[in-house]
Amino acid sequence: MNIINYKEVLEDIYKHISSEENKGSVATYIPELAKINPDNFGVCFLSVENEEYGIGDWQTKFSIQSISKVISLGLAYKIFGDKIWKRVGVEPSGTPFNSLVQLESDNGIPRNPFINGGAMVICDMLVSHFENPKEDFLTYVQEICDSTEIQYSKKVAKSEASVGYRNKALCNFIKSFGNIENEPREVLDFYFHMCSIEMSCQELSKTFMFLAKNDFKTSKGESVLSRGRTKRVNAIMQTCGFYDESGEFSFKVGLPGKSGVGGGIVAVYPGKYCITVWSPKLNKKGNSYRGMEFLETFTTETELSIF
Ligand code: GLN
After folding, report:
1. Which of left, alpha, beta for 91 (phi over 0: left; psi -120 to 50: alpha)?
2. Mean pLDDT of successive 10-residue segments in the chain (307 residues)?
3. Which of its termini does the chain have fewer beta carbons within 10 Å around, N or C?
4. How remote is the CA of residue 143 from the centroid of ligand 1, in Å?
5. Measured in angstroms, how far is the CA atom of residue 248 from the centroid of ligand 1?
6. What is the DSSP letter of 236?
7. Residues near ligand 1 (Cβ within 6 A)
8. Cα distance between residue 85 and residue 66, in whole Å
């Protein structure tokens, strides 16, 4: 087997993509996100053997947005087990992340946990379970990442809440079918905070080790998910992590992954590595333009995809 010089490969791709036009546009529907510098560009590769390479703005924190939905799914799965699949499906929706259309015919059962409606149902489960959901969730993220520096951005959460009419509609609509137990106001507050978590590429790659490393343990020595459950979460990332661009990401990159409208993408090669790319300009489907480009080139050049 060829020994790959990751540092060199990553730097070459970074240089090449930086020299090309930075297409797309930053998310503006959350006013606070519109303020980001569109030229930020960071990458962090972390292998299960702890080989780490970072380039560009890899240690700058950004809004992880929907990437947080994987972490909350992991926690709900750990707490409730397979019961969660009674309230949320595992099928790709083929629709944008904030779409309402399928919920009517699906009787309020969102197609998967990564579209907004599905993530809200997961949030509802956590709100029912915890005394202090926001505090307890943050502590859990900090433990997986082994860093107390991870925090919510109150500004971003407030900014999203001030304009989140569609998310409010989604939550209320699901509640009308009986698939939200708590008050929508409370569930949405938790959801907006979860999405507002700020992390760097370095911190995200470290956090997502819970899906890459077979024997992953938190800083307290606790395991997060069994191998069987890790397989399932990775499978949902593979099929649903990029909404109506999930097929495209699978086709181009060939790894389970998750994006967020803050411009971050995390991809996982189970048993081998995690890689995070951050570049705030998004394509029409709401996924980072440069993030997709970078990862496609990386898995093609290294021949390191799961396929
Ligand atoms: N907080 C964002 C929203 O609900 C998350 C969307 C995303 O990152 N795709 O619209």
Report:
1. beta
2. 85 98 97 97 97 98 98 98 98 96 98 98 98 98 96 98 97 98 98 98 98 91 94 98 97 98 98 98 97 98 94
3. N
4. 24
5. 19
6. H
7. 65-66, 97-98, 116, 160, 167, 195, 260-261, 286
8. 20
Expressed in angstroms and rounded, the spacing between residue 66 Cα and the centre of ligand 1 is: 5
Going by CA atoms, what residue is nearest to atom 4 of ligand 1?
Answer: 116
Beta-strand relationship, 273-278 and 42-47: antiparallel
> What H or E segment, with its residue span, contains residue 124?
helix 116-129
pLDDT, residue 261, reads 98
Query: In 173-183, which positions are buried (b, 16+ CB within 10 angstroms) versus exposed (e)?
Result: bbbeeebbebe
Q: What is the DSSP string of 278-305?
A: E---B-TTSSBHHHHHHHHHHHHHHT-S
- 243 lies in the same domain as 298: yes
How many residues does the structure list for the chain?
Answer: 307
Full-model pTM: 0.97
In a domain, 1, yes or no: no
Q: Compute, in angstroms, the gap from residue 95 CA to the centroid of ligand 1.
A: 14
CA–chain centroid gap for 251, Å, is 19
CATH code, domain carrying 79: 3.40.710.10
What dihedral angle (degrees, nearest 10) is formed by the CA atoms of 239, 241, 247, 248? -160
Which residue has the least CA distance to atom 6 on ligand 1? 66
Contact 59, 108 (CB under 8 A): no
In a domain, 246, yes or no: yes
